[in-house]
Amino acid sequence: xxxxxHRLVDSGFASRPGRGRIIKIRRHVGLGDVRPDATFRLxxxxxxxxxxxxxxxxxxxxxxxxxWLLRKLTMRLHHTPRLRAELDVATWCSGVGPSWAExxxxxxxxxxxxxxxxxxxxxxxxxxxxPSRLPHGFAAGDRRxxxxxxxxxxxxxxxxxQWPLRATDADxxxxxxxxxxxxxxxxxxxxxxxxxxxxxxxxxxxxxDPSDEVEMLTAEHEAxxxxxxxxxxxxxxSALVGFGT
Length: 245
Fold this sequence. Notes:
- This protein is mainly β.
- It contains 2 helices and 10 strands; from the N terminus they run βαβββββαββββ.
- The chain has a 10-stranded antiparallel sheet with strand order 1-3-4-5-2-7-10-9-8-6, with helices on one face.
């Protein structure tokens, strides 16, 4: 793969199981969730996914549960929800590794499946932050998934701009919230005239702190564009966005 040939990797999305633990929530697409053309933003979608994951974590009752860090999120947008849509969000565990688990989430508007996502979360010790084996009693079937990152590093010709962090980007643990990483992607979409997003994927090499001085790098690829968020010469996160009609 050439350095600037960035492609979204198909994670082989697992189907919803016929039985087992599935958490469902409902979300309303409000004025603060949409672009000027009334379409659902990626950061707002990421918040809905987080809410579903938190609802699962808050009611799971698994002993010795540590903390979870998002490693990778892949999204397929079959149809883009619009202002005032009612979203039915369903999430479940679809696979595991030694110290990580995959979360599948489907979003429906009425009977229509509009978005599918797959996220890999790493289970870590809440004190040291080191990866920790999944706790006893964590039930997720026998499907094995990888936590390997696949995004390329930015090419030398990538465009560069400062990306200032805001107080509202910080979450309950004082780090930049996962949803806030989609704001620079939305900025690039606006610059390009807001083309229709069909696929989007983000990978986290490390997190951002509110005090970090962040640089946003952007480059073209054949299906859309790539974004990297860097502190100094270190890539903290990267996103790939693919367009469609």
